[in-house]
Every structure is written in structure tokens, then in C-alpha cells.
Amino acid sequence: MVAIRRNGHRRPPPRHTIGPMRDLSRGVGVAAAAAVLAALAGCGTTSGTPVGGTTVVEQPNATGLLGALRKVRATEQSALLVEYGNVDAVRELKESDPQRFRSLEGYGYSDLAGKAPVLRDAAGFDPRGAAEAIRVGKPPAWAGVVWLQVDVGLVNSKFERTGAKRADEADATTWITANDDEVDLKSPFAELGIVTGFNKVRVAGDSIAFGPSAKTLGWVVEPGGVTLGGDNPVSELAECLGDVVAAMIATGPTSVAAGIRVDGDQVDEVVCAPSDQPGEVSRRVQAKLDDVSPQGGPVWSTVLRDARAEAPGDRPGMVRVVVPAGPGTVAGRVFQSFLRNDLPALFS
Where is this region: Disordered (predicted)? Predict the structure, then answer.
């Protein structure tokens, strides 16, 4: 039996909420920026290192996937690919049924997932203990953030021992372990397989953000007024997915999203794609889902068994596929199809 809290996860502590920054908060943000940029200039780092430390406006009902998207700046690059995990909820699911839900572990922090067992010793934190995590963009331009209770002194001491340069703010420290996009195969983190991901790391009491460059780190530590949770293709796909414990969203010529919804004992895998003719396309998709002997491509009747396609009235311009994942079914089939890039053809 699956039993998790509705929207089931601990929220990061409210002391330092990273969220969409309004124009009225610019004064504090600029002051923090000036201090940190001056410190970074003294360290001889590349220009443009993000500053964080801005005052932000709390967003009502900003929880789950949409809440996380509202903490990420909307850019052409950050919108290309989004990976999200409600780490708390996934952890509870895995504890309730390891075989069924183990495959969901690591979403939102995939770059760190394989190194999690050794990160506590190397960097002072374990991403598996996070409440939520999100990763945006595609290499080489990407960034990630995990929201968790941080032992700031421990984490800072770990980075200090590597010889990294630091820039302190009122409530956070940015560590510069390498220049923007630099590949240093001799760094202590490269030895763990994190080649560029920790070039820039921002440590705060409720989060650790990281990325290969100052520019991309800025997406998740200083989101600005326009975020991925606003009126854009990413948020529309997220709204179509609904309340998910894990999600992947890709935008571009063939935009598509996949996620896992859990409501009590009901587990559904969900896929969404935009369409100008959702009614007609949903019927075409259903025919593919029902076809037991297609002429080519995946046998969707087997891959996504018992799936149903719909043109949801609550999300105009979308086609949604819902796949029930009953007891004994390993969750994550839609993610496998997403990663194989099979899903765009389903909606074509």
C-alpha cells in the first residue's frame, strides 16, 4: 500500500525563501550584488558570478513542481530541459515499497545521485536528504539546486579545504572552485565524477545551488521577475502534469512532459504535450496506445499498458496520457520513454 502525505514533503524553512524577485526588492538585491561582485573581483574570478541574497516576495500556493519552477529564472536555455523531484515524497514511497519506487530516486539531482553516498564526506551534505530538487538546462549550460537543512559550517569547511575561493553574503557563501565552464580533471570533485557541476556553488541554510558557470548559477539563486513558473510553455506542461513527485519537461520543436502522480493508493504516470487540435490528436494517440502490432516504433499497448489519452477540459491546448501504475508495477515507464525520446512520436 502506498501512503504518503498529500503534497507530501517537508517544505524548506521559511527563513530564506528563494522565489521570484519583484522590482520592489531590487534595492536590497543590488546592494548584495555590489558587495559580492567586489569580493569576486578580488579573487580574480570570471565576471558575472551571481550574487543571491536578494529579498523576494513569497508566492502563495507555490508548492511542488510549480513552486520549484517559480524559483528558476526563465531563459531560452533554462527552459530546454527541466528535471524535478519531490525528494521527501520519493523517499517515503521508496521506504514503503523499494522495488516499486526505487527507480524514482535521484530525479531533480541526477548529476549528484550516483555520488550521494560519498558527498557527505567530500562536500558536507547528502542530496538524498533534501526536501525537493530541481535541475534545469542542458550541458554545457545548466544548473541545479537542492533544498534541505544545511550544516553550513560543515559544508563551508569542506569547500575551504579544497582551496576554493569564497564570496560571503549576509546569509550565504558562494564558492568558486574553477572558472566558468572550466574542466579541471584534477579537482577533488572531478575525481568523484562531478567535472564542472561544482565550478560555482552557493551554500545557504536551506539550500545548495550549483552549476558550471556564474551565469547558470544565477538562474537558480537570483531568478528575477520572469520565472519558469510564469506564463510559458514549461509552466503549461507542469500544470497539465498536475501534482507530481517527479517530472521531466522538455521544450522546443517537440515539447513534452512526463511525471508521476501519487494520491493515496492511486499511482498514475502522466505524459502531456501541447496541441492545436487536442481532440483529434488525443484520438490518434489513443489508437497508437491500443495498437498491439504497430508497423514500427514502440508497442505502446505493452510499454504503457492500459493508458488512456484525453483532451483535458481543464488544460486547453494540451493532450494528456494517463497510465495507471497498479501494485507490482515498477514506476517510471514514462521516464524511460522520455529518455529514449520516444514520446514525441506518440503525439505526432
Answer: 1-22
